[in-house]
TrEMBL record:
This is Alpha/beta fold hydrolase. It comes from Thalassobacillus hwangdonensis. Residues 21-253 form the AB hydrolase-1 domain. GO terms for molecular function: hydrolase activity. Keywords: Hydrolase. The lineage of its organism: Bacteria, Bacillati, Bacillota, Bacilli, Bacillales.
Length: 270
């Protein structure tokens, strides 16, 4: 199990399989690299396929500081630099999209080949001029309280909302196991930060080829979020997954893998 030291006291767990142009999968808040278990075998046949556990998530050791999207982006920059990666495709799901946008804002896209954004808003917060946000102050406060008082109970209610169809007990069990690895204190800190970050000012700066993957089911994120990003990010491609909610890579894995693969391959022709 490889770990990388990002700075003293901060180590990231990652899986690294295959050879070729690198593709890095970045998970959502509280989630882990295990959620990409249906992507790693497929992409590692033709790409160097990497899935990383962000600071304090999954198998990465807990760190009581730096649990912000901005710091996660800095961690990602060190991670890419230490592995000596070039022409990277970043695939960010949910909060992972914020990490990508913050990375682009801080470091630019010169080292990137493309980005894949999976089911995320430009901001999760319902700002006065952004009504499609996922959280208002009341709902965010409820989530913050729930993660402190009954982490497992909150996750049991939240995880099924990510899927169009009901989860089996087996599916819910492994997802609970993964998402319970993050201590409630850290879970609350990063939930707040990722919920109020507003990446709208960054979108017009993006000049990296971008694929937007959104589920049709709107339990968490509306399709309007993808349409907004498609309008704001020049040259982006929007793909709707009709049988998915928040996790098309798990709900329609074969189609998701093929769509992302075809997108990356199309860039080789230009």
């Amino acid at each position: 199990m490889p770990y990388m030291e990002i700075e003293k006291g901060v180590n990231l767990y990652y899986e690294d399989k295959g050879e070729g142009k690198p593709v890095i999968f970045i998970h959502g808040v509280w989630m882990t690299s295990r959620f990409f278990h249906k992507q790693i075998p497929y992409f590692s046949e033709n790409y160097r396929t990497i899935a990383v556990d962000l600071r304090s998530h999954g198998k990465s050791p807990d760190v009581s500081y730096g649990n912000t999207v901005a710091t996660y982006a800095q961690d990602l920059n060190v991670f890419i630099d230490k592995l000596g990666l070039k022409d990277v495709t970043l695939d960010g799901w949910s909060m992972g999209a914020f990490v990508i946008w913050e990375y682009l804002h801080q470091f630019g896209g010169s080292n990137l080949k493309a980005t894949v954004i999976v089911d995320e808003l430009a901001s999760d917060f319902k700002w006065p001029d952004f009504e499609i946000g996922a959280f208002d102050l009341h709902s965010l406060a409820g989530m913050m309280q729930g993660i402190q008082t009954d982490q497992e109970g909150l996750l049991r209610g939240f995880l099924p909302l990510m899927f169009k169809e009901d989860l089996s007990e087996e599916e819910l069990a492994w997802m609970l196991e993964e998402t319970m690895k993050i201590p409630s204190s850290i879970a609350g800190a990063i939930l707040f930060d990722q919920s109020v970050i507003d990446c709208r000012p960054y979108l017009s700066e993006i000049d990296v080829p971008t694929l937007l993957c959104f589920g049709r089911e709107e339990k968490l994120i509306p399709v309007a979020a993808g349409e907004h990003l498609h309008q704001e990010i020049k040259g982006s491609t929007l793909e709707i997954f009709e049988e998915s909610c928040h996790c098309p890579f798990l709900e329609e894995p074969e189609r998701f893998n093929q769509v992302v693969d075809a997108f990356i391959q199309s860039l080789e022709l230009h």
